[in-house]
Amino acid sequence: MIEILPIFTHSPLRNFSYIVYSNRTGEAYVIDPFDAKSILTYTKQFGVKIKGILNTHEHGDHTQGNLELKEETKAIIYGHTNAKDKIPGLDQILKEGDIVFSAEEESLVVWDTPGHTFSHLSFVRKNPNTILGIFSGDTLFNAGVGNCFRGGDPNALYDTIQSRFETLPDTCLLYPGHDYWDNNLKFSCHIDPENEFRNSYKTSLKPFQVSEIGAEKKLNPFFRRNTDSVKDRLTELKESFSDERSVFLTLRRLRDQW
Ligand SMILES: [Fe+2]
Predict the structure, then answer these.
(1) CATH number of the domain where residue 94 is located
(2) For 198, which of 47, 62, 219, 230 could close a Cys bridge (C-beta 3.0–4.6 Å)?
């Protein structure tokens, strides 16, 4: 079975790196290494060996542990083809559908998920029956989506969210690149005031809660773009919109300025 160990860094960026490993073979992959030293401490503690480093995208806060980890472990560094000259130490290109890691019945499969940048991969954990989880980098967060300031485009992000993330099963667990629960829930209360599910979810929220896609569909305003609560609020704020895409783009712009 594949085990997942989230590693949170207490910096203003609130980064998550993840160690994904087989508890049978001890083979491990690190997703988006931030603090190499703490990752090495955990891999020693758990007795696992890092074979590869998987970067969701090229931004420094997702790749800054690459070289130190590679030096220490000789791991292979993987990333998107568009990030060839941007990811430190990149060895191998990954593309849509590639399987990076298999353990028993489970595997980690690559999705090409542009929007936050055009070199953005997500990693999907699946077994033969279903998708168990997704490592979404800066594409989808708890109660929010990534910004598109540094090399991205909100239209592409809309397409990715709508055509990929919204097809995930409700039970799929979300492993994002940052813990942005707090700010995103505040924005959600501002932009989606009539959301009882969000209110009760918020009351029972635990620190670093891992959400399911089913819960995100009910609390994430970017998923709830077609609800009266969100649309009435946009009208109240004198925002004009027509279709679902334009609501999404308006939400993204308001979140940027918020
Ligand atoms: Fe990023």
Answers:
(1) 3.60.15.10
(2) 219
| 96-125 exposure pattern, b = at least 16 Cβ within 10 A, e = fewer | eebebbebeebbbbbbbbbbbbbbbbbbbb
Q: According to the model, what pLDDT value does residue 104 have?
A: 84
Distance between Cα 10 and ligand 1 center (Å): 17
> What is the Å distance from ligand 1's center to 197 Cα?
29
CA proximity to 173, closest of 218, 211, 220 = 211
pLDDT tens digits for 42-100?
999 999 999 999 999 999 999 999 999 999 999 999 999 999 999 999 999 999 999 99
How far, in Å, is the centroid of ligand 1 from the Cα of 235?
31
- pLDDT band for position 39 (50/70/90)? very high
- Beta strand 27-31 with 16-22 is antiparallel
**Cα-to-centroid distance, 136 and ligand 1 (Å):** 11
How many angstroms does the Cα of residue 90 sit away from the middle of ligand 1?
17
218 Cα–ligand 1 center, Å = 25
Q: How far is the CA of 61 from the centre of ligand 1 (A)?
A: 7
- Residues by chain with Cβ below 5 Å of ion ligand 1: 59, 138
Q: What average pLDDT does the segment 226-251 reach?
A: 98
Query: Domain residues for 158?
Result: 2-257
Number of domains in the chain: 1
Q: Is the pLDDT of residue 102 over 90?
A: yes
